[in-house]
Each structure stands twice: as C-alpha cells, then as structure tokens.
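hey can u check if this looks right to u? its 320 residues, i copy pasted from the old doc so theres a chance i mangled smth
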Amino acid sequence: MSMASQHFSLKELADGVYAAIASDSGGAFSNAGIIDLGDSTLVFDTMNTPVAASDLKCAAKELTGRSVYYVVNSHWHADHWMGNQVFDQRAMIISTPETLELMRSELDDILESQRDYSGFQKEIEDYEKIFQVESDPLRKEVLRSTISRWRFELEALPGLEPRLPNMTFEKMITLHGKRRQAELYNAGKGHTVSDVFLVLSEEQIVFWGDLGFFSCQPYMASCDLEGWKSQILSMTQSLYKHFIPGHGPLGNQMDLRLEHEYIVTLEEKVRRAFQDGVSVEAALSQISLPDPFNDWIYNGAHRFEANVRFLYEYFKEEQE
C-alpha cells in the first residue's frame, strides 16, 4: 500500500479489504472502509471533510483499480458523510430512510454555517489561547488535535456541497460481487435513530460505524440507551472477530465488552448522583471513572460532559 495521507492510515484486514483509521490531527475524524467486491468498489463512510474523502477516494482507486461505485453512510452525524460530494455522480450512496431524513434536516444548519462562520473561527481562536497556557501534556495534545481538526473543518466550509444518499433500504441488503459479498444491516435505534453496520461473513469482519467507539469515550448524546447496549451485547455473542469502529483503533470482542462496560459504568454513576440530588454541574466535577475509562476522557473530552448531561435528561424523562 503506497497511498499515504495526513488524514488517515490504511490497515489491510484481508485481501481487498482495508480500514482507513482517522489520524488525530487530520480532517477525517471518523474511520472509514474500502472493500473490493471483485467487480465493484465500496466505501463505508466518507469522513468529516472533502479533503480527507478525496484521499480516501484516491486510495480506493489505487488499491482496487477502479472508481468507487457503492458509498455507504452509516448514520446521519456529519463527520461520517461530509465527504460524499467527492465521489463520482454515478456512485450509489446508500443509507436507511431514517438517516436520509435526518441528513436532509442538517442541510439548513450547514448552509447557515457557510454564511457565517465567525463564531466557529472565534471558538478556534479561544482554544488556541487555552492551548498556550495549558500545562498538562495530555490535555495539551487533545487541544492541539482538536484545533487542527477544526481548522480543516473551517477550511472546508466555503466549498461544502452536501450530497445525500440516492438509495435507501429498510432492514438488510446484500451487495454481491465476483470476489465477495457485503451484507448491510439496519441496526435500528442505537447510537442514533438508525445505524448501519456492514458484515463480511467469510472474513469475520464487521464495519461497525459509530456503534463502536474503541479506546475512547462513546458519544451518547443522541443515542437510544437501551437499544445501543443491546446491540453491543448481541454482537458479543456473534462469531465475528474483527471490528472497525467509527472512532478509535481496530478492535475485537474485548473492545465491544469494554465499550458496553463504559456505558453501564457511567450510567450507574450518573444515576446515583441524580438520585442523590447532585446538580449536573457538580456531577461533572465529582464523577470519576475507573481504569481504563479514566484515560479515555483525554480522547474526546467534550464527550464526557455531553454524556453526563444526556444521562441527566434521560433520567428526568424516566420520572415524567
């Protein structure tokens, strides 16, 4: 594999199957996949910016010898589909109907960001000031990576032309090729209202999308809590061995179990604080996580706050 990118690193999982693992400071932010079906090429997710997706497109062409025909969008969060626009207009972009609907609802916000990105620019500048005075090496590295990623997003804004899926499926679809077949499953409510994962049965490989966050905090703010926990547990009962998460390094069944344990552990700690009448602001400073989850906070620091605030709202709704 001669393809090099500042946005991701390529990992060969099987002959003709590759994971593109996002670099900390690049414009990808989320992971993706390249699959040679034999007579067509598939890309799973298109990353956070067109510049990163352009490198992904080039890598797919170099590795498989043909242009990408299938593009799968795993869910509606923008860091997984902002690269759609770089692929050939003849490419089939696939999602679930629920994902397509939510992607459409994001268009106005994207257009508004293009009209005025001064607020975003100021946020970057504020982070740069914090970076200059931060003394903790781990927090400083997180700030550096975040600032770099946001700068790629800011540079991408003027040229964004969001491209939506042109094919949807309800429950499951199989894409057949001369070399292998790819099975797409609509997992239903989990990380979002609808998440797609891709299975290569013969290779025991699963492109898990944002149903998977490995060695980093899951982002729970738009999740169906019970659905997500159930989906992870169900996959731990499978025979699949290799998992490509939406965020974090390549993983296995142990990583699935750790992800589930993080969600359950945080849920229990926040529920206890909520039931004790602790304010959400106090809970943010009081709650600590055991190993290995305490180290995960450095990889996505804002996710911890988002997750705690989400759980407080979740428990309030339970009482109503």
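Residues 262 and 293 are 7 Å apart (CA to CA).
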